[in-house]
UniProtKB/TrEMBL annotation:
Residues 14-194 form the Metallo-beta-lactamase domain. Its cofactor is Zn(2+). This is Metallo-beta-lactamase domain-containing protein. InterPro entries: MBL_Glyoxalase_II, Metallo-B-lactamas, RibonucZ/Hydroxyglut_hydro. It comes from the Bacteria. One of its GO terms (molecular function) is hydrolase activity. Pfam families: Lactamase_B (PF00753). It comes from Ornatilinea apprima.
Length: 215
């Protein structure tokens, strides 16, 4: 049975959260769970899936607000994966204070992600690519078997992630896109943290933030 991706959009700023499921082995991973992830928990239970891990593209509060609720609802161990360059953001208020939101985390990541690392959802490999720019520890998750990448807030359809938050850098972000997104096959589907999906080919051809940018 193929790897399945279930997309849910919810939370105060309409985050896209992704549940990856090896339907044969009944193993699952959730990427970027936002606040009150009751739909995700229902997906796990309705499909009889065991949650193995929560992977985070980065440590902004809207991408991890549901971590503690999912850990409380699922039997351990459930690993929490984050790139170490985003640990300072995690250990402060995950950027929530900039938006006037109180926020704190009472758990720590126990899976430190690295560039080129190979993770698994059941028997299916997923490659971690470090893509700083939106935040220092931003990563994307590339799934070769599905020709799909889950790209967080690095790139959107016709847009790119904001770089005006602490730790953001526009030059670094565009460099990450050039080196880690535009080098993927043209047909690769890009699933962002907000908004609709796109493809590598579409963004290479029409994204106004990328056209004419040279290093």
């Amino acid at each position: 049975m193929p790897l399945e991706i279930i997309e849910r959009t919810f939370g105060p700023v309409q985050n896209n959260t992704y549940l990856l499921a090896d339907t044969g082995q009944k193993r699952a991973v959730i990427i970027d769970p936002t606040f009150r992830p009751v739909m995700l928990q229902a997906d796990l239970e309705n499909h009889g899936l065991h949650l193995d891990a929560i992977w985070l593209t980065h440590a902004h509060f809207d991408h991890l607000g549901g971590v503690e609720a999912l850990l409380a609802e699922n039997p351990p161990p459930v690993q929490v994966g984050l790139h170490p360059a985003d640990l300072p953001l995690w250990q402060s208020d995950a950027g929530a204070g900039l938006f006037g939101q109180p926020f704190s985390m009472n758990v720590e990541p126990d899976l430190l992600l690295t560039d080129g690392q190979e993770l698994y959802v059941g028997e299916y490999p997923v490659k971690v690519l470090h893509t700083p720019g939106h935040s220092p520890g931003h990563v994307i998750f590339y799934i070769p078997s599905l020709s799909t990448a889950i790209v967080g807030d690095l790139i959107f359809r016709g847009g790119v992630g904001r770089t005006d938050l602490p730790g953001g850098d526009s030059y670094t972000l565009i460099k990450s896109i050039q080196e880690k997104i535009l080098t993927l096959p043209d047909e690769t589907v890009l699933l962002p943290g907000h908004g609709p999906s796109t493809t590598v080919e579409l963004e290479r051809d029409s994204n106004p933030y990328l056209n004419g940018f040279a290093f």
